[in-house]
Specification:
With 338 residues, this protein is an alpha/beta fold. It has two domains: 155 residues, 3-Layer(aba) Sandwich (Rossmann fold), CATH 3.40.50; 142 residues, Dihydrodipicolinate Reductase, domain 2 (2-Layer Sandwich). It is 37% helix and 23% strand. The protein has ten helices and 15 strands. The strands form three sheets. The protein has a seven-stranded mixed beta sheet with strand order 12-11-7-10-9-8-15, with helices on one face. Helix 4 runs parallel beside helix 5 and helix 6 packs across helix 7. It is globular, with a radius of gyration of 20 Å. The relative contact order is 0.16. The chain binds nicotinamide-adenine-dinucleotide. The site of nicotinamide-adenine-dinucleotide has 26 residues, from helix 1.
């Protein structure tokens, strides 16, 4: 049984604690830390954990009672626990984004390169989603030919938090497509251009400019467009369509029952990522736990993938602020991440 220490017991921290307690085998929550101690006490009480509440992330990472870490704290405080865990040789499953800047993400890569082994799996959970895995298999098989275009939608009913701002739309939300499309296409990005759409009058936040439209150009000349619309009101709606030379492959909609009621036929849409990607989250944890217990290389999205996403995310933010197309320059991938 892998003893996991969870850093950050907010929204998704609690989701992950719950899945580790009720659903995912092979790991247990043995420690928790949050800068808000009440969040730890609540998680321990609500999920009946037999877990130590640590006074700091460092103390938990250092503890011999903890085998591996799960980072679920705010985006801008991922770096320190990641570097500390790598330094003392413990694996970490960190929520996305790896960090909030390319320079910080590079530090994580450099720390792993210095030791010569991967310690970090990034929570780009879509790579474990059945539908995305099916799309990847179709793209890699060559059956629809080389990929020419892709169109994606990332729609949320409402922002994740009350402090969501314009750049978060890129670095917190769109970062999922930045990673998963890079993985699906299997080639580097060349440039990105961000555009702001007409403001939704139902968007209550003055500092949150969206919807946003991304146009990504790949090294081959292929083009990806992504609509990010996080005040869509009606649900959590994720779509992706790959256009190849001979055919099109689309992400399947999640199957929900067809309901005939009150003169309508309809299918429910997931309200949030929690339910939409529940199986993917469970799978990413299983992969992390098995690799850590078996001492085999981590298979999920790597620190390098997180770094690439940070480079592209930063370029997207620059594009939005400066209203211009911005080049994306990805360094050569080190052999560790081949
Ligand atoms: N993979 C996904 O689909 C997905 C979905 C939601 C959130 N996330 C990611 O999960 C992380 C947490 O998001 P959330 O929605 O749970 O946010 P949240 O605001 O609900 O929770 C964050 C928690 O971190 C704690 N915290 C802040 N600074 C800390 C520090 N230095 N050390 C320890 N704890 C600290 C806060 O007190 C809070 O309890 C973010 O990185 C976010 O991007 C990923």
């Amino acid at each position: 049984m892998l003893n996991l220490g969870v850093i950050g017991c907010g929204s998704i921290g609690r989701d992950h604690v719950e899945r580790l307690t009720t659903t995912v085998a092979g790991g247990r929550v043995a420690g928790v830390f949050d800068v808000v101690p009440e969040a730890c006490r609540k998680a321990v009480a609500d999920f009946g954990l037999d877990a130590e509440i640590f006074a700091s992330a460092e103390a938990m990472i250092d503890s011999p009672k903890i085998d591996a870490l799960v980072v679920c704290s705010k985006n801008d405080v991922h770096l320190a626990p990641l570097l500390h865990a790598i330094k003392i040789g413990k694996n970490v499953l960190t929520e996305k984004p790896l960090t909030t800047s390319a320079a910080e993400s590079r530090q994580v890569v450099e720390a792993e390169l210095a030791v010569g082994r991967r310690f970090v799996q990034v929570g780009f959970n879509r790579r474990f989603d059945r539908g995305y895995l099916q799309l990847k298999a179709i793209a890699d098989s060559g059956q629809i030919g080389a990929l020419l275009l892709a169109n994606c939608r990332h729609y949320n009913a409402a922002p994740a938090t009350s402090y969501y701002r314009t750049d978060d739309v890129i670095l917190d939300t769109f970062i999922h497509e930045i990673d998963v499309m890079h993985w699906l296409f299997g080639e580097n990005y060349a440039s990105i251009e961000m555009k702001l759409g007409r403001r939704n009058s139902l968007n209550p936040a003055p500092d949150l400019d969206e919807p946003q439209l991304a146009i990504i150009e790949l090294a081959s000349g292929a083009l990806i467009t992504v609509e990010i619309n996080i005040n869509c009101q009606y649900g959590y709606d994720i779509q992706c369509r790959l256009v190849g030379e001979r055919g099109i492959a689309s992400l399947p909609d999640v199957a929900t029952p067809e309901v005939r009621l009150d003169g309508r036929i309809y299918h429910a849409i997931d309200p949030s990522w929690t339910s939409r990607f529940v199986d993917a989250y469970n799978s990413e944890f299983l992969a992390f736990i098995h690799a850590t217990v078996d001492k085999t290389p981590l298979a999920g999205p790597s620190a390098w993938d997180g770094y690439v996403a940070s480079i592209a995310g930063e370029a997207a933010v620059t594009s939005l602020h400066e209203r211009r197309k911005v080049d994306i320059v990805i360094p050569d991938k080190p052999a560790l991440y081949a």
